[in-house]
Design brief:
The complex is a heterodimer of chains A (about 80) and B (about 100).
Chain A lengths: L4 H11 L4 E6 L6 E7 L8 H9 L3 H6 L4 E7 L1 H8 L1
Chain B lengths: L3 H13 L2 E5 L9 H10 L6 E4 L4 H11 L6 E4 L2 E4 L1 H9 L3 H6 L2
Parallel strand pairs in B: 1-2
Antiparallel strand pairs in B: 1-3, 3-4
Classes of the chains: A alpha+beta (about 80), B alpha+beta (about 100).
Chain lengths: ~80, ~100
């Protein structure tokens, strides 16, 4: 079964309820995605922990390979505001 | 569960080599775009010890448990888990990767 950006975003929301999420299917095949995620819970947290927090609710589909790749960019609201300039 | 022998192997590997990249394929023939990208980002700053996880299924599954990280590639610098290719890319674009590798 191919996954959808909405489904993945829903899963992430269960773990990070305040997350502002944008996800694209990079290949159109429902298994490679890229995501930009902004959450206040990321403030002051090392990037490796931020990405682990996003991967955690997707552990099962990553393990089966249904979700082959999820490229991540994670920001705190402040980092995101600076990024947008 | 991660077998003790495998854990001991990873402990030793990341202690012995300053930069370790667990990847799909090897340095000459990466077999995944994300692994290739991580390697290209790390290479300018010195030798990279690569481990082909496709060569051994127990290593492929074991390193995921060892790092609590569900995907390949995985990067260790001076014994510390850094993350996957996105994080290495971000560190490189911030100019922080070199300092991380070159620090004593």
């Amino acid at each position: 079964m191919a996954l959808t950006p909405e489904w993945i975003a829903g899963r992430i929301k269960t773990a990070i309820p305040d997350a502002d999420i944008e996800i694209n299917d990079t290949t159109g095949t429902g298994d490679h995605f890229e995501a930009r995620i902004v959450s206040a819970t990321f403030a002051g947290v090392p990037m490796v922990r931020q990405h682990q927090a996003v991967y955690a609710p997707l552990k099962d589909v990553l393990a089966t390979g249904e979700l082959h790749a999820l490229a991540l960019k994670t920001y705190s609201p402040e980092q995101w505001a600076n990024k947008k300039g | 569960m991660l077998p003790d022998t495998l854990k001991a192997r990873f402990d030793e590997e990341i202690k012995t080599h300053p930069v370790v990249l667990y990847m799909k394929g090897n340095a000459l023939f990466p077999r995944c775009g994300f692994s290739a990208r991580a390697l290209e980002l790390l290479k300018p700053f010195g030798p990279v010890h690569t481990v082909d996880v496709l060569a051994d299924e127990s290593v492929r599954e074991g390193i995921k448990q060892y790092s609590s990280w569900p995907t390949i590639p995985q990067i260790y610098i001076h014994g510390q888990f850094i993350g996957g290719s996105d994080i290495v890319g971000e560190l490189a674009s911030r100019g922080e990767l070199e300092a991380l590798i070159k620090k004593p």
